[in-house]
Structures are given as C-alpha cells and as structure tokens.
Amino acid sequence: MSSVRALIDGLVASIREGDGQAPREQRCAAFANAGLTGPVRTLVDKVASRARDVHDEDIAAARASGSSEDQIFELVVCAAVGQAMRQYASARAALDATTRSE
Amino acid sequence: MRLAILDTGHAFWSKLLFAFIRTVSRQPTPEALKLVAYRPEFYGSRMKAVTHEAMRGTSAWSVGDRELMAAFVSSANESEYCTKAHTAVAALSDLDAAPLAEPLRATLRMLRKLTRENTVDVEDMRAVLAAGASREQVEDALAVAFAFNATNRLADALGFSVPGPKAFEVGAKFLLARGYR
Predict the structure, then answer these.
(1) CB B110 within 8 Å of CB B36
(2) Residue pairs between chains A and B whose CB atoms are closer than 8 Å
(3) CA nearest B54: which of B127, B149, B130?
(4) Which domain holds residue A25?
(5) With an 8 Å Cβ cutoff, are B153 and A47 in contact?
(6) How many structural domains does chain A have?
(7) Going by C-beta distance under 8 Å and a sequence separation of 6 or more, which residues neighbour residue A57?
(8) Long-range contact pairs involving A63-68 (C-beta distance under 8 Å, separation at least 24)
(9) Does A52 map to a domain?
(10) Residues A41-53, mean pLDDT to the nearest whole number
C-alpha cells in the first residue's frame, strides 16, 4: 500500500485547503487544535483529545455561537483527522529514527 | 447523529442508494456510510480511498490481521460503534485464527500505545522490528491506525447510534465482499 501516504496527503489538503463553508484559517486551526476560541475551541479540543466526551450540548453551543451545521461538520472532521495525523507523524518519525542510531 | 445534515442532508442519489440499502439489508442505513456520503468531495471520497487502501491494498498483513488492528485501535479509543463494527469483520474473516504471531502481537502493542498516548518513540519501534515485523508492515499498520483514529473520533463526536448485532453482521459481510470503497 505504498500509495497510501499520497492518499492521506490528499485528504489532509482537501479538508484544510479545499472548498468549504468554514474559513480555511479556522479549518487549519481545528486541524492543529490551536488558536481557536469559545465553544468551537471546546468542541474541537474534545474531538481531538476525548471524543467520547462530546455531548449534544457541545454541538448546540457551537451552533449558538454562530457556526452552521456544515461549518461544524467541517471543523469536527478537521479536528479528528488532525489528531490522527499527529499520531501518524509521531510514529513515522520514530520508525525513521530506528535507522539513524543504535 | 448530532448534525441533522448527516441524517437528511444528502444529495438525491445518495438518498436513493440509502433507500436501496435499507430495502435489501432490512437494516437502517449505516451511520458510517451516512458520514462518508455527505458532501463526499470534502472528506468522504478521500477517506474511503485511504481506508480501502489501508485495509484492502497490497500488504504483507492479511485482511484479517488488518481488521483485527482496526478493532483493536477502536477498542483502545473506547469507540463503541467502531469496535462492534470491526470485531464482527475480524471474527468473520479469521474464524480459524491461531494464537497471534509475534510480529502482529508486537504491532498491536505499539498501536495501542500510539492510540492512547498519541505518541511512540524509537524504542517502541525497535521492539516491533525485533519481533519480526518488517518496516513496510509497520508503515502499513500505521495507515490502518490513522484511518481508525480519525473515524473513531468522528463516530463518537457526531453521535453515531449503535445498532443491534444483526446490522453489524450484515455490514461485516458487505465490508468483506466490497471493502471500503
């Protein structure tokens, strides 16, 4: 599955930079779980760190702060993929490091 | 689903497909399908391609090995929907499984740490390689973990409702026959 890295890169590019209803900067911030404020920040951090603790109230608070359902969909996707990508990058760096030192 | 658009906001052709699936399977439309079918050009089409390549692309790991990894990562995330969905597939595809071979066991151990702690180090990787997994196998396993660490979060955050065992059984047969495309 040597092509999977290119597919992952394409996915990440699409959700961060592709056409969407949330601003690109906000999607990139959700991906990084950094630089957000208010209920959207709370929601994004929960998705990244402890998704099981997301409740209806978290979505409702983000809606009440002005985000549409489509924008929330995009930001939640960015938060989930961003955290998975950080894990993936950490593991790939550790694997690469096995060839550099003994 | 916590977002109404993921229940009812799909394009006409997707709704037609959902109706067909409900009729043939006599089960509700799978929540995982509703997610990837919503505005697929943004997320779903690309994630399906990633997941299919990770789970069904050419690899030294068997399909059963990779389904076990998917179930294991989902379990480490305590994601009920995904654990139930993939335990069913792993059981179906690997009924005669022997006790785990050491490379798979060591790989699962590393994936569990990565999933729970978000990071692994060079010693963790050396342990997997020393157990007999190839570098390519480690890379393949990391792609499986990527797909499920993202999907588990979405299932939990978006509030996938967990259906009964029959729905997962039907879904497992579909995933074995058709993959994730």
Answers:
(1) no
(2) 149
(3) B149
(4) 4-97
(5) yes
(6) 1
(7) none
(8) A64/A39, A65/A38, A65/A39, A65/A40, A67/A22, A67/A40, A68/A21
(9) yes
(10) 97
Low pLDDT (below 50) residues in chain B? 92-96, 98
pTM of the model: 0.94
Q: Which domains does chain B have, with CATH numbers?
A: 5-178 (1.20.1290.10)
Q: What is the pLDDT of residues B12-51, one digit of tens each?
A: 999 999 999 999 999 999 999 999 999 999 999 999 999 9
The Cα–Cα gap between A16 and B47 comes to 14
pLDDT digits (tens, 9 = 90+) for A7-35: 999 999 999 999 999 999 999 999 999 99
- Cα B56 to chain center, whole Å? 11
Please say whether the beta carbons of A21 and A68 come within 8 A.
yes
Assigned domain for A18 exists: yes
Is the Cβ pair B139, A81 closer than 8 Å?
A: no
ipTM summary value: 0.96
DSSP letter (8 states) at residue B77? T
What residues 64-93 of chain A have any CB closer than 8 A to a CB of chain B?
69-70, 72-74, 76-77, 79-81, 83-88, 90-92
- Is residue A35 in some structural domain? yes
d(CA B57, CA B80): 26
Q: What angle do CA B91, B72, B165 make, to 5 degrees?
A: 45
Gyration radius (Cα) of chain A, Å: 15
pLDDT of residue B169: 87
Q: What are the start-end ranges of the E strands in B58-127?
A: none
Amino acid B90: pLDDT: 61
Asked whether residue A102 is domain-assigned, the answer is no
DSSP code, position B38: S
Nearest residue in chain B measured CA to CA from A85 = B146
CA proximity to B157, closest of A57, A24, A10, A23: A57
